[in-house]
Amino acid sequence: xxxxxxxxxxxxxxxxxxxxxxxxxxxxxxxxxxxxxxxxxxxxxxxxxxxxxxxxxxxxxxxxxxxxxxxxxxxxxxxxxxxxxxxxxxxxxxxxxxxxxxxxxxxxxxxxxxxxxxxxxxxxxxxxxxxxxxxxxxxxxx
Length: 142
Fold this sequence. Notes:
The chain contains 5 helices and 4 strands; from the N terminus they run ββαααββαα.
């Protein structure tokens, strides 16, 4: 969501205080790649465009872009700009899947074992929850 600061003339304030701005820029570009807003070989805004649009230092945007290049998500075309790599979306999906299993599934399994819940029961409960979610994704399934 874009918010406008009352202290600045018509500059969007879209960055929170929880992380450095260069990380937030990188996270936004990653999210745009995952959702398909940015497709393979699509050009992204330049560091100067980011700086002008968001009212930030160009070095801040450049640091975000450098991180994305090092991750293999963006590449440079000399004299033209930065572009999304062909496999960027798949890389990000793989990272998120790995993180999902590490952060959610592994603790779920550990807790189920601690409580004496069988794998079949866990799977059945997840299937039921998914079924309820599919019927009404807007409503909480708990």
